[in-house]
Amino acid sequence: MSPQFTSPPNSDAHSSSSTSSISSASDRRLNALVRHLAAEESSPMDSLSASPTAARADSVFAHVVQGPEDPILGVTVAYNKDQSPNKVNLGVGAYRTEEGKPLVLNVVRKAEQKLVNDMSRVKEYLPIVGLAEFNKLSARLILGSDSPPVQENRVTTVQCLSGTGSLRVGGEFLARHYHERTIYIPTPTWGNHTKVFTLAGLSVKNYRYYDPATRGLNFQGLLEDLGSAPAGAVVLLHACAHNPTGVDPTLEQWEQIRQLMRSRALLPFFDSAYQGFASGSLDADAQSVRRFAADGGELLVAQSYAKNMGLYGERVGALSIVLKTSEVATKVESQLKLVIRPMYSNPPIHGASIVATILKDRDLFNEWTIELKAMADRIISMRHQLFDSLRAKGTPGDWSHIIKQIGMFTFTGLNPEQVAFMTKEYHIYMTSDGRISMAGLSSRTVPHLTEAIHAAVTRLA
Ligand code: KET
Q1: Average pLDDT of the chain?
Q2: What distance in angstroms lies between residue 348's CA and the mean position of ligand 1's atoms?
Q3: Which residues contact 150 (CB under 8 A, 6 or more apart)?
């Protein structure tokens, strides 16, 4: 039997009028967590020994069952255990050089040097909302420096723990303060979205996005599903370089999505984890978000600097909420602080300082855009090399989606059985949905991947 949570005591003493909504959000979250964990549990809790004399007997946690590895990060765990010299990790979306090495951008090294040399810098706590300069510059980066909401002070931005933390804080805020607690996410989407939003207290539903038959956008399905979503529902949109499909709407399609969403008062929540990685241009990749911001309506956007600045482990990102007026923005920010403070108090200083140093200095900024474009270009070149190589080998199938898809990933169309075969026989690691991280590929490994794909599709058709 699953443990049942009753209403937790409400510790939020100064908000008695919203007590019931907060406690019901907490209930929902706890129940969601229980369901989530119970689903992974195979044995009941009755082996638990709580006897006070049992100090040397079983652990009080003996009933805890081994949890599954994460579908994406677990691929790296398996890869690290593999002893083969030919192993290739195309699982996690992390950039690698032609030599297969992680890359620290030169501009990041320069910014860090500047920070280290500045003896006036201290390690005090940041405010709950993070580094003010970083927040301001991040809002401008995604919305554009001439953006009306930025100029009119109706954006609130809080520094969060990379893209994931920004999504989670946004989700928790919506669960507490927004009238419609359903969020629609695309099918398929980044695997963590469902967990992040469910545990934030939202109810997750899906909208059609990808059509496996055309390996393109199911635009009709998308419009139908958003058209029948309840008015006011939250809709998660990938700002660019959709993960895992690499399929983005065209600008005309974005315009139709915008009109439909605004006409039905659907609230956009953009996940921007790849700004600059899709096209190589920071501005071009922000067009979807900027169109929604330009119409005067409200939106949320979660930004990550993991990929575009290579700051994966620094956990640096931002949540911005564009609002109708600066008065509302001020109040929303005060509530975001109440979400953040009991979660992790305030964010780390180092990564945000690197980003701020780069964004505020014209030369460093320009250098960043050049390095970013070089990463995007290398990924595009990998697409062409893999496509040419499969064609040269005569591998059955139409592989043109490899060069049509955008961003870090190719959604190959390989099935879980073919993926397992490639891992077992060729030591190629990728997620079981057939997604490969093009950034993990190099000219040296393209032939090996080609062999593996060829064998998989000819033997396990
Ligand atoms: N959104 C999307 C769409 C996304 O692909 C990722 C990461 C994130 C948010 C979170 O990134 P963060 O590191 O929190 O800024 N995706 C890659 C890594 C991961 O799964 O954590 C991936 O899909 O491989």
Answers
A1: 91
A2: 19
A3: 139, 140, 143, 144
Cα gap 265→259, rounded to integer Å: 10
271 is catalytic: yes
What's the pLDDT at 30? 58
Q: Can you tell me the distance from the alpha carbon of 171 to that of 160, in angstroms, rounded to the nearest whole number?
A: 13
Could you tell me the distance, in angstroms and rounded to a whole number, from the CA of residue 43 to the centre of ligand 1?
32
Gap between the Cα atoms of 441 and 414, Å rounded: 17
Ligand 1 atom 22 nearest Cα: 93
From the list 190, 248, 285, 399, the catalytic residue is: 190
Render pLDDT for 83-104 as a digit per residue (tens, 0 to 9): 999 999 999 999 999 999 999 9
Q: Is the pLDDT of residue 15 over 50?
A: no
* Ligand 1 surroundings by CB, under 6 angstroms: 72, 92-93, 162-164, 190, 192, 238, 243, 271, 273, 304, 306, 312, 317
Task: Please give the Cα distance from 206 to 210 (Å, whole number).
Answer: 12
pTM, two decimals, is 0.89
Length of the chain: 461
- Ligand 1, atom 2: nearest CA belongs to which residue? 273
68 burial (CB, 10 Å; 0-12 / 13-18 / 19+) is: exposed
User: Does residue 250 carry a pLDDT above 60?
Assistant: yes
Q: Whose CA is nearest to atom 17 of ligand 1?
A: 93
Q: Say how far apart CA 73 and CA 77 lie, in whole Å.
A: 7
pLDDT in tens, 413-422: 999 999 999 9
Residue 23 clears pLDDT 70, i.e. is over it:
no
Considering only CA atoms, which of 308, 331, 310, 307 is closest in space to residue 321? 331
pLDDT on residue 32:
61
Give me the catalytic one of 110, 248, 307, 433.
Answer: 307
User: And the tokens for 205?
Assistant: 């539903």
Is 331 one of the catalytic residues? no
d(C-alpha 247, C-alpha 75), whole Å = 23
Residue 320's DSSP bridge partners are: 157, 301
Q: Output helix, strand, coil percentages for the chain, rounded to the nearest 5.
A: 50, 15, 40
Return phi, psi of residue 244, to 5°.
-100, 0
